[in-house]
Write a structure and sequence with these properties.
Blueprint (H helix, E strand, L loop, with lengths): L7 H11 L11 E12 L7 E12 L11 E5 L15 H10 L4 E3 L5 E3 L2 E6 L5 E6 L4 E6 L4 E7 L2 H12 L17 H5 L8 H9 L3 E5 L2 E5 L7 H4 L10 H7 L10 E2 L3 E7 L3 E6 L13 E5 L4 H9 L5 E2 L6 H6 L3 H4 E14 L9 H9 L3 H9 L4 E2 L25 H14 L11 E6 L2 H18 L3 E6 L1 H7 L12 E7 L9 H5 L14 H11 L3 H18 L3 E13 L3 E3 L14 E2 L1 H7 L3
Parallel strand pairs: 3-15, 19-20, 19-21
Antiparallel strand pairs: 1-2, 4-5, 6-7, 7-11, 8-9, 8-12, 10-11, 13-14, 14-15, 16-22, 17-21, 17-22, 18-22, 23-24
Helix pairs in contact: 1-8, 11-13, 17-18
Length: 611
């Protein structure tokens, strides 16, 4: 819930060669026999050369005919996609792709409403512990065949695929970093935290069988929970609980996510993945709702630099992009771009995390000083310029149980004059008055022009207010995620690192517990258990909504104020530019962006491009 610097001109030249606003279908290959002269060397002792003529098959690429055009959305993934494996995906880029390739039991609207998807209906027991889902019987697994360029139906999607996918995510041998989300299911945590190497096959199977999910028949899934969870239908929409195809996973191992091996069951099919360059998805004609899908192809490049993507947008090579920070003033005043600009609140938070077992940020006073010395409103007004709101808590206002803006929590985050005063005081109490004796620290972010500007601004604030030295570093997204993982050796971790979090479902459990619980969450700060963990666990079990809110407020205070495991910086807004020929699109979705629901006026797009 991101990337290497490249030369803008070089990327633009390449983009102009491989991208068009009306991408062509991969041309038909025609075989033609030609003659080729080959020089053959004959072995000693007789040194002679013999010229022979051989026949060779070569490929001739004809010009595609107009009827081969497909309604195409030109998109920028912004980075190499870390994974298309539903059990292994953890980042927004992968989740955007999976949202279109895979469908789950339910689907969440941007405002958190639960809609049917693979499940047409469901029943919940009176005690809230059992969910019975009835599945549609017309969902199909499909695979794209690069050789024939055809989409092939493999077999129907069944309830057993949901059971297999859920247990595969939880199986510790899979190595899913997001498995903890499913701990609400009976037996899930016991399976996921088991040391399989120390167990017999019978003991392993007993743990797998003990997970509270079963398929009474081919089109019924029954889930039993550890405790009542009113947010479970939101979890049922997530990629980690979607059906997964056992056959290619077991046959091809890690390679199963590559073109030609990959099975999917959603409205789109992955047809091409040139790593670190582009990935293409095409409409799945065998999806049950295919008649309502207007986008026939999503051609997604992997351009990291916002300035390059913006230039491509202005050249009509991208249909959607986020404006670079340095262009925000021009975009807002430009008569054309200002009409294409959309800004609205979003259920995401931008924050800096601290490596809590690495000196000097192992000292809570140092962490509080660093957080308080950030001028959040000044950063928004002068650098980001997207109407964001300064954050004093982790979860934003649209999340159930949030305490955003509550002055009882980190009031210094909302008042910079108070923040500067407190920051200096805390750093002095930590033993570093005016920054004296404070060792240099590293602030790391994933490669992005925007993240770089924010990091540089905050590093300057820390140096100005606290008198400390900050080294700013960046890494490409996929590498970065590995670097800041809680299992990375502490000496390889930066002191401070950037991340963002967007809602998987609209409940504080998805924020404070699933992200920062020291034993059941991501725990990138590497915290040790405290009262925070007790509070978030108690809130999970509490059935009274008002009591849950009170527990979450106390947990937010510990997270962002008393222990300062993180420094929340701002609550996101959606800031995006969209071409006028994109006549319908979605914004701020949970669990990924639904490209298959977008609509394009294809004739208007071609006319704008002079085609």
């Amino acid at each position: 819930m991101n990337k290497k610097w490249a030369i803008v001109l070089g990327v633009l030249v390449i983009a102009s060669l491989v991208l068009t606003a009306c991408p062509q279908v991969t041309p038909q290959v025609i075989e033609k026999v030609v003659k080729e002269t080959v020089v053959v060397e004959v072995e000693k002792p007789v040194e002679v050369q013999k010229v022979v003529e051989v026949e060779k098959i070569v490929e001739v690429t004809p010009t595609p005919s107009p009827e081969e055009e497909k309604v195409t959305l030109n998109w920028n993934w912004g980075t190499e996609i870390p994974s298309l494996d539903p059990a292994l995906a953890t980042d927004t880029t992968s989740i955007d792709a999976l949202r279109n390739l895979y469908i789950g039991l339910t689907q969440l609207t941007p405002d958190g409403e639960v809609l049917p998807m693979l499940a047409t209906e469901w029943e919940v027991s009176e005690d809230g512990l059992e969910y019975t889902f009835k599945l549609r019987d017309d969902a199909q697994w499909v695979k794209y065949k690069p050789g024939t360029k055809e989409i092939e139906v493999m077999r129907p999607v069944t309830a057993q695929d949901v059971v297999y996918g859920t247990k595969r995510t939880l199986d510790p041998r899979t190595g899913s970093d997001y498995a903890y989300v499913l701990y609400v299911i009976k037996g899930a945590q016991a399976l996921n935290t088991a040391d399989f190497t120390a167990l017999s096959k019978e003991e392993q199977q007993a743990l797998l069988d003990g997970v509270g999910i079963e398929a009474p028949d081919d089109y019924t899934v029954k889930v039993t929970l550890e405790y009542p969870a009113p947010y479970f239908l939101g979890i049922a929409s997530m990629w980690v609980m979607r059906p997964m195809p056992q056959e290619p996973i077991e046959e091809y191992g890690d390679r199963w996510i590559e073109p030609g091996f990959y099975w999917s069951n959603g409205p789109m099919v992955m047809t091409e993945w040139v790593h670190d360059d582009h990935m293409t998805m095409e409409k799945n004609p065998y999806w049950w709702g295919a008649d309502e899908v207007e986008i026939e192809r999503v051609y997604g490049v992997m351009v990291v630099e916002a300035s390059t993507a913006f230039a491509m947008y202005e050249a009509n090579e991208l249909d959607v992009t986020g404006p670079p920070l340095e262009e925000m003033d021009r975009v807002k005043t430009d008569p054309v771009l200002s009409k294409e600009l959309y800004i609205a609140p979003r259920d995401c938070t931008y924050y800096y995390g601290f490596t809590m077992d690495k000196p000097p940020v192992d000292n809570v006073l140092v962490r509080k000083a660093l957080s308080a010395a950030i001028d959040r409103q000044g950063l928004i007004d002068n650098v980001i310029k997207g109407n964001q709101l300064p954050a004093n808590t982790f979860a934003p206002a649209m999340i159930f149980g949030n305490a955003a803006g509550d002055p009882d929590i980190a009031p210094w985050a909302l008042d910079y004059e108070l923040g500067k005063e407190m920051a200096k005081q805390w750093l002095a109490e930590a033993g570093y008055p005016n920054g004296e004796g404070f060792p240099p620290i590293t602030l790391m972010f994933n490669t992005s022009e925007g993240h770089a500007k924010i990091a540089q601004a905050i590093a300057a604030m820390w140096q100005d207010v606290l008198g400390i030295t900050v080294k700013v570093e960046n890494q490409e997204w996929k590498v970065y995620l590995q670097t800041i993982d809680k299992d990375t050796p502490v000496e390889e971790m930066p002191h401070v690192w950037r991340l963002g979090w967007c809602a998987d479902y609209p409940d504080e459990n998805n924020w404070v517990h699933e992200v920062f619980h020291a034993e059941e969450g991501n725990n990138n700060p590497r915290a040790t258990p405290s009262r925070f963990e007790e509070l978030t666990k108690a809130a999970q079990l509490e059935q009274d909504p008002e009591a849950r809110k009170a527990l979450y407020k106390e947990a937010e205070k510990i997270l962002c104020d008393e222990e300062a495991r993180i420094a929340p910086i701002y609550y996101y807004t959606t800031v995006t530019l969209t071409k006028p020929w994109v006549t319908y699109r979605t914004y701020g979705e949970m669990s990924g962006t639904s490209f298959f629901q977008w609509k394009i006026d294809w004739e208007a797009k071609k006319a704008a491009l002079g085609l």
